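[SOLVED] Predicted holo structure with zinc ion

Edit: marking solved, answer below. Original request kept for reference. I posted the sequence and ligand SMILES and asked for the 3D complex as structure tokens.
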Amino acid sequence: MPSPCVVCGAAGAVAEEATVPSNVRAHKHERFAVWRCAACRSIHARDEVDLDHYYRDYPFLRAQDGRVLRYFHRRLWRRLARAGARRDHAVLDYGCGGGLLLAELARLGVAGVAGYDAYSARYADPRVLEASYDVVVSQDVIEHVADPLALLDTFGRLCRPGGLIAIGTPDASGIDLARADAHKHSLHQPYHRHILAHPALLAAGAARGWQLVRHHRRPYTSTPVPTLNLPYLLRYLRAGDDTVDVAYDPPRASWRMVTPAALFDAVFGALRDPGTDGMAIFRKPPAALPPYGSIHAALSV
Ligand SMILES: [Zn+2]
């Protein structure tokens, strides 16, 4: 019997179950059980595992700065800017990894950038979490933690009144557990502990009094630039051993990337984005006005 859903609290209401292989090369022969909450549609990893073991040699830690990543990060900043972020704002990247987004924001002239990542020696200083920020951005983090609602409360504490909270994360609504193997990169087992269905994420934000500014139904890495979109990336992984490690291996050519269908995806793939990942940007309400009674008292003096 699965535990209660940590996203909505519903007890043991399982809509679907599946097992899926890990998409990390070192563990690709292991399968992991996941289940979907019938109430909020979020997807949960069923079993506890020794995560320290799985995070050893985690392929994403091999991400290097480069032209493509910088372009992706500029797109992420554009999303934040359209929602109201400014260059004179203090921005916190919560779960910043090696700090590559921070470096790009600094290059763009964002004055006050800070990063926190418990797993990065350079950014693990908890004093960063004692300050508050105009913008809290957290990309691909909430699905990794044991208690996603507690993390939302942390974001709420870190964000100044009137500030922005941007959460980029997979969307369980777009993941079909009947075809779990085809969604193994979104499910990313055993690392993704709780994949929120975005309606549940939006509801959790609303329950905290946050106003939804924008909801992007695609990742910022799905772009109109040929080859830089999710369907084409997934083809590239399949042309290798279909693990995420392929993206960090030395680039290699494959006839599978130049078939008519692949070339179609290279150019138009963004139009076929599977809707398995997106971003919600919330605004924390401005500082509360003083209660009406105290205004009345002040005016009547
Ligand atoms: Zn639920």
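OP edit: The CA atoms of residues 267 and 299 lie 64 Å apart. Thanks to everyone who chimed in.
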